[in-house]
Protein backbone atom coordinates (compact mmCIF):
# COMPACT_ATOMS: atom_id res chain seq x y z
CA UNK A 1 0.00 0.00 0.00
CA UNK A 2 0.87 3.66 -0.26
CA UNK A 3 3.70 3.93 -2.76
CA UNK A 4 5.42 7.27 -2.96
CA UNK A 5 3.79 10.00 -5.02
CA UNK A 6 5.71 12.58 -7.06
CA UNK A 7 4.97 16.19 -6.08
CA UNK A 8 6.38 19.44 -7.38
CA UNK A 9 6.46 22.22 -4.78
CA UNK A 10 7.98 25.67 -5.18
CA UNK A 11 9.75 26.50 -1.93
CA UNK A 12 11.20 29.97 -1.42
CA UNK A 13 11.13 30.52 -5.18
CA UNK A 14 12.89 27.28 -6.16
CA UNK A 15 11.00 24.38 -7.70
CA UNK A 16 11.51 20.98 -6.05
CA UNK A 17 10.45 17.55 -7.28
CA UNK A 18 9.91 15.22 -4.32
CA UNK A 19 8.72 11.63 -3.99
CA UNK A 20 6.72 11.45 -0.81
CA UNK A 21 4.46 8.99 0.93
CA UNK A 22 0.91 10.45 1.04
CA UNK A 23 1.15 10.49 4.84
CA UNK A 24 4.26 12.73 4.76
CA UNK A 25 3.48 15.98 6.58
CA UNK A 26 4.64 19.18 4.92
CA UNK A 27 6.73 20.18 7.95
CA UNK A 28 8.70 16.92 7.73
CA UNK A 29 9.20 17.26 3.97
CA UNK A 30 10.56 20.79 4.49
CA UNK A 31 12.85 19.89 7.38
CA UNK A 32 14.04 16.42 6.45
CA UNK A 33 14.02 16.38 2.67
CA UNK A 34 14.83 20.00 1.89
CA UNK A 35 16.90 20.68 5.03
CA UNK A 36 14.87 23.77 5.89
CA UNK A 37 15.00 23.37 9.66
CA UNK A 38 13.98 26.95 10.41
CA UNK A 39 10.38 25.70 10.49
CA UNK A 40 9.94 24.07 13.89
CA UNK A 41 7.76 21.27 15.18
CA UNK A 42 6.30 22.32 18.52
CA UNK A 43 3.06 20.76 19.70
CA UNK A 44 2.42 18.75 16.52
CA UNK A 45 -1.34 19.26 17.09
CA UNK A 46 -1.98 22.53 15.15
CA UNK A 47 -2.09 24.53 18.38
CA UNK A 48 1.30 26.21 18.92
CA UNK A 49 2.09 27.71 15.50
CA UNK A 50 5.87 26.98 15.59
CA UNK A 51 5.48 25.27 12.20
CA UNK A 52 3.76 28.26 10.52
CA UNK A 53 4.76 28.77 6.87
CA UNK A 54 3.03 30.52 3.97
CA UNK A 55 1.18 28.34 1.45
CA UNK A 56 0.16 30.25 -1.69
CA UNK A 57 0.76 33.46 0.25
CA UNK A 58 -1.17 32.80 3.46
CA UNK A 59 -0.05 31.49 6.85
CA UNK A 60 -0.84 27.84 7.59
CA UNK A 61 0.40 25.27 10.11
CA UNK A 62 2.63 22.86 8.21
CA UNK A 63 2.17 20.07 10.79
CA UNK A 64 -1.45 19.80 9.66
CA UNK A 65 -0.91 19.86 5.90
CA UNK A 66 0.14 16.84 3.84
CA UNK A 67 2.99 17.38 1.40
CA UNK A 68 0.81 15.86 -1.37
CA UNK A 69 -1.74 18.65 -0.82
CA UNK A 70 0.96 21.14 -1.86
CA UNK A 71 1.61 19.69 -5.33
CA UNK A 72 1.79 22.62 -7.76
CA UNK A 73 1.70 25.19 -4.97
CA UNK A 74 4.08 27.75 -3.48
CA UNK A 75 5.57 27.59 -0.01
CA UNK A 76 7.55 30.29 1.79
CA UNK A 77 9.48 29.41 4.94
CA UNK A 78 11.44 31.61 7.34
CA UNK A 79 14.53 30.94 5.19
CA UNK A 80 12.73 32.56 2.25
CA UNK A 81 12.05 35.84 4.05
CA UNK A 82 15.57 37.20 4.48
CA UNK A 83 19.17 36.16 5.12
CA UNK A 84 21.62 36.86 7.96
CA UNK A 85 23.10 39.68 5.90
CA UNK A 86 19.79 41.02 4.69
CA UNK A 87 17.07 40.57 7.28
CA UNK A 88 13.40 41.00 6.42
CA UNK A 89 11.93 44.07 8.21
CA UNK A 90 9.95 41.73 10.48
CA UNK A 91 13.13 39.86 11.44
CA UNK A 92 14.92 43.17 12.01
CA UNK A 93 12.06 44.35 14.25
CA UNK A 94 12.10 41.14 16.34
CA UNK A 95 15.84 41.68 16.87
CA UNK A 96 15.50 45.37 17.64
CA UNK A 97 12.60 44.91 20.09
CA UNK A 98 13.82 41.72 21.78
CA UNK A 99 10.82 39.80 20.47
CA UNK A 100 12.37 36.47 21.43
CA UNK A 101 14.12 34.70 24.24
CA UNK A 102 14.66 30.99 23.51
CA UNK A 103 13.69 31.51 19.87
CA UNK A 104 11.69 28.32 19.42
CA UNK A 105 8.42 30.04 18.50
CA UNK A 106 10.14 32.83 16.56
CA UNK A 107 10.02 31.52 12.97
CA UNK A 108 6.29 30.84 13.34
CA UNK A 109 5.68 34.18 15.04
CA UNK A 110 7.49 36.02 12.27
CA UNK A 111 5.58 34.17 9.54
CA UNK A 112 2.29 34.96 11.35
CA UNK A 113 3.34 38.61 11.73
CA UNK A 114 4.19 38.94 8.04
CA UNK A 115 0.86 37.29 7.15
CA UNK A 116 -0.98 39.89 9.25
CA UNK A 117 0.81 42.82 7.60
CA UNK A 118 0.02 41.34 4.16
CA UNK A 119 -3.67 41.64 5.07
CA UNK A 120 -3.62 44.72 7.32
CA UNK A 121 -0.73 47.12 6.81
CA UNK A 122 -1.29 49.21 9.97
CA UNK A 123 -2.81 46.88 12.57
CA UNK A 124 -3.84 48.05 16.03
CA UNK A 125 -2.37 46.38 19.09
CA UNK A 126 -5.60 44.44 19.52
CA UNK A 127 -5.50 43.25 15.90
CA UNK A 128 -1.91 42.09 16.38
CA UNK A 129 -2.82 40.16 19.53
CA UNK A 130 -5.72 38.45 17.72
CA UNK A 131 -3.53 37.68 14.72
CA UNK A 132 -1.01 35.75 16.83
CA UNK A 133 -3.66 33.76 18.72
CA UNK A 134 -2.44 30.68 16.91
CA UNK A 135 1.18 31.09 18.05
CA UNK A 136 2.28 30.23 21.55
CA UNK A 137 5.38 31.73 23.20
CA UNK A 138 6.35 30.43 26.65
CA UNK A 139 9.13 32.98 27.30
CA UNK A 140 8.25 36.54 26.45
CA UNK A 141 4.72 37.12 27.62
CA UNK A 142 4.11 38.37 24.07
CA UNK A 143 4.71 42.01 24.95
CA UNK A 144 7.85 42.50 22.88
CA UNK A 145 6.51 40.34 20.06
CA UNK A 146 3.52 42.68 19.76
CA UNK A 147 5.87 45.67 19.82
CA UNK A 148 8.07 44.13 17.14
CA UNK A 149 5.14 43.51 14.78
CA UNK A 150 3.89 47.03 15.40
CA UNK A 151 7.35 48.41 14.61
CA UNK A 152 7.66 46.28 11.45
CA UNK A 153 4.44 47.87 10.23
CA UNK A 154 6.16 51.25 10.41
CA UNK A 155 4.15 52.38 13.41
CA UNK A 156 5.96 54.04 16.26
CA UNK A 157 5.82 51.99 19.43
CA UNK A 158 6.12 53.25 22.97
CA UNK A 159 9.56 51.64 23.14
CA UNK A 160 10.92 53.24 19.97
CA UNK A 161 9.76 56.72 20.95
CA UNK A 162 11.30 56.28 24.42
CA UNK A 163 14.59 55.09 22.94
CA UNK A 164 14.66 58.05 20.59
CA UNK A 165 14.00 60.46 23.50
CA UNK A 166 16.88 58.92 25.42
CA UNK A 167 19.25 59.26 22.47
CA UNK A 168 18.23 62.86 21.95
CA UNK A 169 18.58 63.72 25.66
CA UNK B 1 2.73 11.99 15.28
CA UNK B 2 2.44 10.38 11.89
CA UNK B 3 -0.71 8.96 10.29
CA UNK B 4 -0.87 5.31 9.23
CA UNK B 5 -0.25 4.59 5.54
CA UNK B 6 -2.98 5.41 3.06
CA UNK B 7 -3.44 5.93 -0.67
CA UNK B 8 -4.13 9.38 -2.05
CA UNK B 9 -5.97 10.71 -5.09
CA UNK B 10 -6.70 14.28 -6.20
CA UNK B 11 -9.39 13.90 -8.89
CA UNK B 12 -10.13 16.79 -11.24
CA UNK B 13 -13.88 16.29 -11.57
CA UNK B 14 -16.79 15.59 -9.23
CA UNK B 15 -17.64 12.42 -11.20
CA UNK B 16 -14.13 11.08 -10.67
CA UNK B 17 -14.28 11.97 -6.97
CA UNK B 18 -17.61 10.15 -6.60
CA UNK B 19 -16.26 7.13 -8.49
CA UNK B 20 -13.17 6.99 -6.26
CA UNK B 21 -15.34 7.36 -3.18
CA UNK B 22 -17.64 4.52 -4.27
CA UNK B 23 -14.84 2.24 -5.41
CA UNK B 24 -12.63 2.71 -2.36
CA UNK B 25 -14.91 1.18 0.24
CA UNK B 26 -15.88 2.24 3.72
CA UNK B 27 -12.47 3.48 4.85
CA UNK B 28 -12.12 6.00 2.03
CA UNK B 29 -12.43 9.57 3.30
CA UNK B 30 -12.86 12.89 1.56
CA UNK B 31 -10.18 15.49 2.25
CA UNK B 32 -11.24 19.16 2.17
CA UNK B 33 -9.16 21.53 4.32
CA UNK B 34 -8.02 18.63 6.48
CA UNK B 35 -8.06 20.55 9.75
CA UNK B 36 -10.43 18.14 11.47
CA UNK B 37 -9.40 14.99 9.59
CA UNK B 38 -5.59 15.24 9.62
CA UNK B 39 -5.34 15.80 13.42
CA UNK B 40 -7.55 12.72 13.95
CA UNK B 41 -5.39 10.73 11.51
CA UNK B 42 -2.23 11.80 13.33
CA UNK B 43 -3.77 10.55 16.59
CA UNK B 44 -4.77 7.38 14.66
CA UNK B 45 -8.34 7.83 15.86
CA UNK B 46 -9.33 7.78 12.18
CA UNK B 47 -7.44 5.32 9.98
CA UNK B 48 -8.50 5.72 6.36
CA UNK B 49 -7.11 3.47 3.63
CA UNK B 50 -7.57 6.16 0.99
CA UNK B 51 -8.02 9.95 0.89
CA UNK B 52 -9.83 11.62 -1.99
CA UNK B 53 -8.67 15.25 -2.02
CA UNK B 54 -11.34 17.65 -3.32
CA UNK B 55 -9.04 20.61 -3.92
CA UNK B 56 -8.90 20.20 -7.73
CA UNK B 57 -12.62 19.52 -8.20
CA UNK B 58 -14.19 22.50 -9.97
CA UNK B 59 -17.42 24.12 -8.80
CA UNK B 60 -16.89 23.71 -5.06
CA UNK B 61 -15.79 27.31 -4.43
CA UNK B 62 -17.31 30.80 -4.65
CA UNK B 63 -20.15 32.61 -2.93
CA UNK B 64 -23.22 33.94 -4.72
CA UNK B 65 -26.46 35.43 -3.53
CA UNK B 66 -29.47 33.73 -5.14
CA UNK B 67 -33.13 34.42 -4.26
CA UNK B 68 -32.56 35.77 -0.76
CA UNK B 69 -30.05 33.09 0.11
CA UNK B 70 -26.29 32.68 -0.05
CA UNK B 71 -24.88 29.75 -2.00
CA UNK B 72 -21.44 29.02 -0.59
CA UNK B 73 -19.17 26.48 -2.27
CA UNK B 74 -18.32 23.63 0.11
CA UNK B 75 -14.55 24.23 -0.20
CA UNK B 76 -14.85 27.89 0.89
CA UNK B 77 -12.39 28.41 3.74
CA UNK B 78 -13.33 30.05 7.05
CA UNK B 79 -11.16 33.12 6.39
CA UNK B 80 -13.21 33.87 3.24
CA UNK B 81 -16.39 33.75 5.33
CA UNK B 82 -14.75 35.89 8.02
CA UNK B 83 -13.75 38.66 5.61
CA UNK B 84 -16.95 38.70 3.53
CA UNK B 85 -18.81 41.97 4.24
CA UNK B 86 -22.40 40.65 3.91
CA UNK B 87 -22.60 37.30 5.69
CA UNK B 88 -23.53 38.66 9.14
CA UNK B 89 -23.76 35.92 11.76
CA UNK B 90 -21.92 33.36 9.60
CA UNK B 91 -18.99 35.74 9.16
CA UNK B 92 -18.92 36.54 12.85
CA UNK B 93 -18.97 32.89 13.92
CA UNK B 94 -16.30 31.97 11.34
CA UNK B 95 -14.03 34.70 12.70
CA UNK B 96 -13.95 32.93 16.08
CA UNK B 97 -12.83 29.54 14.73
CA UNK B 98 -9.39 28.69 16.18
CA UNK B 99 -6.77 31.05 14.72
CA UNK B 100 -5.85 32.68 11.37
CA UNK B 101 -3.73 29.74 10.17
CA UNK B 102 -6.55 27.26 10.78
CA UNK B 103 -9.10 29.60 9.17
CA UNK B 104 -6.93 29.69 6.02
CA UNK B 105 -7.36 25.90 5.65
CA UNK B 106 -10.61 24.73 7.25
CA UNK B 107 -13.68 24.72 4.99
CA UNK B 108 -17.41 25.21 5.61
CA UNK B 109 -18.29 21.93 3.86
CA UNK B 110 -15.66 19.99 5.79
CA UNK B 111 -16.77 21.44 9.10
CA UNK B 112 -20.44 20.61 8.50
CA UNK B 113 -19.65 17.10 7.21
CA UNK B 114 -17.50 16.47 10.29
CA UNK B 115 -20.56 17.29 12.44
CA UNK B 116 -18.68 18.06 15.65
CA UNK B 117 -21.28 19.51 18.08
CA UNK B 118 -18.52 21.68 19.62
CA UNK B 119 -17.64 23.42 16.33
CA UNK B 120 -19.04 26.82 15.44
CA UNK B 121 -20.80 26.56 12.08
CA UNK B 122 -23.33 23.71 12.60
CA UNK B 123 -25.48 25.66 15.11
CA UNK B 124 -25.35 28.75 12.88
CA UNK B 125 -26.64 26.78 9.89
CA UNK B 126 -29.36 25.28 12.10
CA UNK B 127 -30.47 28.62 13.55
CA UNK B 128 -30.48 30.31 10.14
CA UNK B 129 -32.55 27.49 8.65
CA UNK B 130 -29.97 26.66 6.00
CA UNK B 131 -29.28 23.51 4.02
CA UNK B 132 -26.55 21.70 2.10
CA UNK B 133 -26.45 20.30 -1.43
CA UNK B 134 -25.03 16.80 -1.60
CA UNK B 135 -24.22 14.70 -4.61
CA UNK B 136 -23.82 10.93 -4.64
CA UNK B 137 -24.35 7.91 -6.85
CA UNK B 138 -28.11 8.50 -6.51
CA UNK B 139 -27.83 12.06 -7.90
CA UNK B 140 -28.06 15.45 -6.21
CA UNK B 141 -30.22 16.18 -3.19
CA UNK B 142 -30.78 18.90 -0.62
CA UNK B 143 -30.48 18.19 3.09
CA UNK B 144 -32.06 20.72 5.45
CA UNK B 145 -29.93 21.67 8.45
CA UNK B 146 -32.66 20.28 10.74
CA UNK B 147 -32.14 16.84 9.11
CA UNK B 148 -28.34 17.02 8.77
CA UNK B 149 -26.95 16.48 12.26
CA UNK B 150 -27.85 13.02 13.56
CA UNK B 151 -25.50 12.32 16.46
CA UNK B 152 -21.98 13.01 17.71
CA UNK B 153 -19.88 13.56 14.55
CA UNK B 154 -22.59 11.80 12.56
CA UNK B 155 -24.52 13.43 9.75
CA UNK B 156 -27.11 12.24 7.24
CA UNK B 157 -24.61 12.72 4.39
CA UNK B 158 -24.13 9.19 3.01
CA UNK B 159 -20.62 7.66 2.83
CA UNK B 160 -20.76 7.86 -0.98
CA UNK B 161 -21.93 11.50 -1.07
CA UNK B 162 -20.05 14.79 -1.34
CA UNK B 163 -21.35 18.09 0.08
CA UNK B 164 -21.02 20.48 -2.86
CA UNK B 165 -22.56 23.69 -1.51
CA UNK B 166 -24.06 25.26 1.59
CA UNK B 167 -27.17 27.45 1.43
CA UNK B 168 -27.73 30.07 4.11
CA UNK B 169 -30.77 32.39 4.05
CA UNK B 170 -29.55 36.01 3.96
CA UNK B 171 -32.05 37.05 6.68
CA UNK B 172 -31.85 40.73 5.76
CA UNK B 173 -32.78 43.03 8.60
CA UNK B 174 -32.06 40.48 11.34
CA UNK B 175 -29.69 41.54 14.10
CA UNK B 176 -27.26 38.89 15.24
CA UNK B 177 -25.12 37.98 18.19
CA UNK B 178 -22.51 35.29 18.76
CA UNK B 179 -21.11 34.38 22.15
CA UNK B 180 -18.62 31.58 22.75
CA UNK B 181 -16.89 30.50 25.92
CA UNK B 182 -13.52 28.79 25.69
CA UNK B 183 -10.20 29.19 27.46
CA UNK B 184 -7.83 29.62 24.50
CA UNK B 185 -8.43 30.62 20.89
CA UNK B 186 -7.61 27.12 19.63
CA UNK B 187 -10.05 25.41 21.99
CA UNK B 188 -13.48 24.28 20.94
CA UNK B 189 -16.44 25.96 22.56
CA UNK B 190 -17.38 24.74 26.03
CA UNK B 191 -20.70 26.29 25.01
CA UNK B 192 -21.56 28.83 22.32
CA UNK B 193 -24.85 30.56 21.56
CA UNK B 194 -25.85 32.28 18.32
CA UNK B 195 -28.91 34.52 18.10
CA UNK B 196 -30.82 36.11 15.21
CA UNK B 197 -33.49 38.72 16.03
CA UNK B 198 -35.91 40.53 13.74
CA UNK B 199 -37.44 43.50 15.52
CA UNK B 200 -40.05 46.06 14.46
CA UNK B 201 -41.06 49.02 16.63
CA UNK B 202 -39.29 47.47 19.59
CA UNK B 203 -41.15 44.16 19.30
CA UNK B 204 -39.47 40.85 18.55
CA UNK B 205 -41.17 39.58 15.40
CA UNK B 206 -38.83 36.62 14.91
CA UNK B 207 -36.00 35.07 16.85
CA UNK B 208 -33.77 32.05 16.27
CA UNK B 209 -31.28 30.74 18.82
CA UNK B 210 -28.70 28.02 18.17
CA UNK B 211 -26.73 26.15 20.85
CA UNK B 212 -23.26 24.69 20.38
CA UNK B 213 -21.98 21.78 22.50
CA UNK B 214 -25.14 21.42 24.58
CA UNK B 215 -25.85 17.93 23.16
CA UNK B 216 -24.36 15.39 20.75
CA UNK B 217 -25.68 17.63 17.95
CA UNK B 218 -26.26 21.38 17.62
CA UNK B 219 -29.67 22.42 18.97
CA UNK B 220 -32.29 25.15 18.54
CA UNK B 221 -33.24 26.75 21.87
CA UNK B 222 -36.95 26.56 21.05
CA UNK B 223 -38.08 27.45 24.58
CA UNK B 224 -36.17 30.75 24.37
CA UNK B 225 -37.56 31.47 20.91
CA UNK B 226 -41.15 30.82 22.05
CA UNK B 227 -40.70 33.00 25.15
CA UNK B 228 -39.41 35.99 23.19
CA UNK B 229 -41.32 35.89 19.89
CA UNK B 230 -43.99 38.62 19.84
CA UNK B 231 -42.69 40.24 23.03
CA UNK B 232 -41.32 43.77 23.46
CA UNK B 233 -37.51 43.69 23.34
CA UNK B 234 -35.83 45.06 26.44
CA UNK B 235 -33.34 43.84 29.02
CA UNK B 236 -36.05 42.24 31.19
CA UNK B 237 -37.76 40.23 28.44
CA UNK B 238 -34.40 39.04 27.12
CA UNK B 239 -33.23 37.97 30.58
CA UNK B 240 -36.47 36.09 31.17
CA UNK B 241 -36.30 34.28 27.83
CA UNK B 242 -32.59 33.45 28.23
CA UNK B 243 -33.36 31.67 31.52
CA UNK B 244 -34.86 28.93 29.33
CA UNK B 245 -31.72 28.39 27.20
CA UNK B 246 -30.86 25.06 28.84
CA UNK B 247 -34.46 23.73 28.94
CA UNK B 248 -34.76 20.20 27.56
CA UNK B 249 -31.01 19.87 27.08
CA UNK B 250 -28.79 17.10 28.41
CA UNK B 251 -25.29 18.38 27.70
CA UNK B 252 -22.34 15.99 27.85
CA UNK B 253 -19.78 16.79 30.55
CA UNK B 254 -16.10 16.77 29.75
CA UNK B 255 -12.75 17.82 31.23
CA UNK B 256 -13.57 21.50 30.76
CA UNK B 257 -17.15 21.74 31.94
CA UNK B 258 -19.70 19.70 33.89
CA UNK B 259 -23.27 19.46 32.56
CA UNK B 260 -24.48 21.90 35.27
CA UNK B 261 -21.78 24.42 34.34
CA UNK B 262 -22.70 24.11 30.66
CA UNK B 263 -26.34 24.83 31.42
CA UNK B 264 -25.25 27.91 33.35
CA UNK B 265 -23.06 29.03 30.45
CA UNK B 266 -25.92 28.52 27.98
CA UNK B 267 -28.19 30.86 29.97
CA UNK B 268 -25.53 33.55 30.42
CA UNK B 269 -24.29 33.42 26.82
CA UNK B 270 -27.85 33.35 25.49
CA UNK B 271 -28.67 36.55 27.34
CA UNK B 272 -25.54 38.22 25.93
CA UNK B 273 -26.15 36.95 22.39
CA UNK B 274 -29.80 38.12 22.41
CA UNK B 275 -28.80 41.51 23.84
CA UNK B 276 -26.24 41.88 21.07
CA UNK B 277 -28.70 40.71 18.38
CA UNK B 278 -31.36 43.15 19.63
CA UNK B 279 -28.85 46.01 19.44
CA UNK B 280 -29.15 46.70 23.17
CA UNK B 281 -25.54 46.07 24.21
Provide a short characterization of the protein structure.
Chain A has 169 residues and is an alpha+beta fold.
Oligomer: heterodimer
Q: Enumerate the strands of the largest sheet of chain A in spatial order, edge to edge or round the barrel.
A: 2-1-5-3-4
Q: Please describe the biggest sheet of chain A, giving its number of strands, its sense, and whether it closes into a barrel.
A: 5 strands, mixed
The CATH class name of the largest domain in chain A reads: Alpha Beta
Largest sheet of chain B: 5 strands, antiparallel
Number of strands of chain A: 5
Question: What does the secondary structure layout of this molecule look like, with pairings?
Answer:
The complex is a heterodimer of chains A (169) and B (281).
Chain A: E1 5-11, E2 14-20, H1 26-33, E3 52-55, E4 58-61, E5 74-76, H2 89-96, H3 106-119, H4 125-131, H5 143-152, H6 158-168
Parallel strand pairs in A: 1-5
Antiparallel strand pairs in A: 1-2, 3-4, 3-5
Helix pairs in contact in A: 2-5
Chain B: E1 7-9, H1 14-23, E2 28-31, H2 37-42, E3 50-53, E4 63-66, E5 69-73, H3 78-83, H4 89-94, H5 100-103, H6 108-114, H7 120-128, E6 131-136, E7 139-144, H8 145-148, E8 149-151, E9 154-155, E10 162-169, E11 175-181, E12 191-200, E13 203-212, E14 219-220, H9 222-228, H10 235-242, H11 259-277
Parallel strand pairs in B: 1-3, 2-3
Antiparallel strand pairs in B: 4-5, 5-10, 6-7, 6-10, 8-9, 11-12, 12-13, 13-14
Amino acid sequence: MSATVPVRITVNGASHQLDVEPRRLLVHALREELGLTGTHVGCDTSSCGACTIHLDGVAVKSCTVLAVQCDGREVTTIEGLGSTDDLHPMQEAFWEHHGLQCGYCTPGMIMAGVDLLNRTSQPSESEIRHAIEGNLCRCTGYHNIVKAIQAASGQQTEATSQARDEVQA
Amino acid sequence: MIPTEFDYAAPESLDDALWLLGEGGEETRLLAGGHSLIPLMKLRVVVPTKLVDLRKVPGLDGMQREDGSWRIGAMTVHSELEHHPDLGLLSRAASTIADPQVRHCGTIGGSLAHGDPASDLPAVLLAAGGSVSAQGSGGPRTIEAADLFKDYMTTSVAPDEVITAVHVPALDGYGYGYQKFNRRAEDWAMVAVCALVYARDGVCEDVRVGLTHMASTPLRATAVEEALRGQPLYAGSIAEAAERAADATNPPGDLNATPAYKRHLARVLCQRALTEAAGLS
